[in-house]
Specification:
With 165 residues, this protein is of the alpha+beta class. It has 3 helices and 11 strands, in the order H-E-E-E-E-E-E-E-E-H-H-E-E-E. Helices cover 21% and strands 36% of the residues.
Length: 165
């Protein structure tokens, strides 16, 4: 059992609160694939974050403008995995099969303060139609990255995401 997703969200919030208490008006915290922003960049522009290309860590498949969001949490199959006989096995276990999840390359959830606690890992483990229906019911911004860098996103994510092809 790994509480990493819950722990990272808690730590991001605690770190952001500590920074604000210390007087920070602007900041970006990157904690293992999860990002929390405070205010805007020092130049007044919104923070922008890249969603990594799973096959090339130096490239991004999309850029997210964090104007309306304070946090981006990503779960993927490309940083914590094992290669066995040439096949990639992700660290997240699909509760429906008992095997490593293999539906997506990554899932990113954008959050505002006070949003329901729907994690990227939970959506990474759900079939796309179920995850999309759940995310849309809460008007959540979610970006799914499938094989071949095919991107699917909820309506709430569309205004924040710029695809890079």
């Amino acid at each position: 059992i790994d509480l990493g997703g819950v722990g990272k969200a808690y730590m991001l919030q605690a770190m952001a609160e500590a920074m604000v208490r210390a007087g920070a008006e602007s900041g970006l915290i990157n904690f293992g694939g999860d990002v929390r922003v405070i205010g805007r960049r020092p130049d007044g522009q919104p923070w922008r974050i890249g969603l990594q290309d799973p096959d090339d860590s130096q490239q991004v498949v999309a850029v997210v403008t964090m104007s309306d969001w304070i946090q981006a949490s990503t779960s993927g199959d490309y940083q914590r995995y094992s290669l066995i006989e040439g096949r990639r096995y992700c660290h997240l276990i699909d509760p429906f099969t008992g095997y490593p999840a293999d539906r997506f390359r990554s899932v990113t959830v954008l959050s505002r303060d006070g949003m329901p606690p729907l994690t990227s890992a939970a959506l990474f483990l759900m079939p796309l139609d179920q995850g999309r229906q759940l995310a849309e019911s809460y008007n959540m911004a979610v970006i799914w990255l499938l094989a071949g860098n095919r991107v699917i996103m909820t309506e709430a994510a569309r205004s924040a995401v710029e695809l890079r092809r």
